């Protein structure tokens, strides 16, 4: 588990390619559904503030998320899953998400190791595809 509970990976692609690849991977998985997309850069621009490209995609799989919420409803604060794609000042594109082990500890989830492992593997595969 990471100290901050956040897993970050560096993309080998530009921002738009990384985000569009991530979105396509999620859309093409029949077990996943995109819930929302937020463009933080556009939101900042709407109030005349600058922000490097920063987008978040929220998606879920009720077959995996529901058992976690049945175990500890407060995990609903962290579900559905979210993956953040952002570009820093040096032009490096990062992909970040919550470490499922951290969420387990944060919410006191018990007896759900199989579900948490499935989520961890899925998030790793999805983000690896996005970063190229």
Automatic annotation (TrEMBL):
SUPFAM superfamilies: TT1751-like. Residues 39-100 form the DUF302 domain. Pfam families: DUF302. It comes from the Bacteria. This is DUF302 domain-containing protein.
């Amino acid at each position: 588990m990471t100290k901050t509970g956040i897993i970050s990976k560096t993309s080998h692609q530009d921002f738009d390619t990384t985000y569009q690849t991530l979105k396509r991977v999620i859309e093409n998985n029949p077990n996943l559904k995109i819930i929302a997309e937020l463009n933080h850069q556009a939101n900042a621009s709407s109030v005349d503030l600058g922000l490097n490209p920063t987008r978040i995609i929220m998606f879920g799989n009720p077959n995996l998320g529901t058992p976690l919420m049945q175990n500890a409803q407060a995990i609903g604060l962290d579900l559905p899953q979210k993956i953040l794609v952002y570009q820093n000042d040096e032009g490096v594109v990062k992909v970040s998400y919550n470490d499922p082990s951290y969420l387990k500890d944060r919410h006191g989830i018990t007896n759900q190791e199989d579900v948490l492992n499935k989520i961890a593997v899925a998030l790793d595969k999805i983000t690896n595809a996005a970063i190229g």
